[in-house]
UniProtKB/TrEMBL annotation:
Organism, as annotated: Salinibacillus kushneri
Cited InterPro entries: NO_sig/Golgi_transp_ligand-bd
Protein name stated in the entry: Uncharacterized protein
């Protein structure tokens, strides 16, 4: 397996350039554009959980089931995730070994894409837990092997 992006599309479609144009346009709008990008990330994170588990309600699920849903969804998204859960302190650690936005994040040379991705993951957590706070611990953009998040959940 390679760490380099490989894409095959017939006929040719350049979605990466389209994504760059859209993101740079939002960033160019200043703080309002960034906030729109972040909130859209949160919305899509929530949406992916709702779409994958349409008949499930957070109220009726155990924490173990919620964590399983997060694991399954993260794996389906290709994040190559690793989860650990401290039940006593209600804290979950999430390590992401594969970032689906890596090329955009590195070409952007700032944390905007990473922040949008954090909001996306927050949206996933918020869809499943009554209260979830996500904090970035490490970031691939800073030379780390993984992006790691600490989630306080209830």
């Amino acid at each position: 397996m390679s760490d380099e992006l490989v894409q095959l599309q017939f006929p040719f479609r350049d979605y990466q350039t389209l994504a760059k144009i859209a993101i740079e346009s939002l960033i160019h709008l200043g703080e309002a554009g960034k906030q729109a990008l972040y909130e859209t990330g949160r919305k899509f994170g929530s949406h992916i959980i709702k779409t994958n588990y349409p008949n499930e309600s957070e109220v009726n699920l155990t924490n173990e089931e919620k964590i399983r849903f997060l694991k399954e969804t993260s794996a389906m998204l290709g994040l190559d995730p690793d989860f650990s859960y401290d039940e006593t302190h209600q804290v979950m650690m999430l390590k992401i070994f594969h970032c689906p936005f890596k090329e955009l994040a590195f070409s952007n040379e700032n944390q905007t894409i990473c922040e949008m991705h954090r909001y996306f993951i927050s949206g996933m957590f918020e869809q499943l837990f009554t209260s979830a706070t996500l904090k970035e611990e490490t970031n691939m953009l800073n030379g780390c092997q993984t992006c790691m998040y600490k989630a306080s959940i209830q």
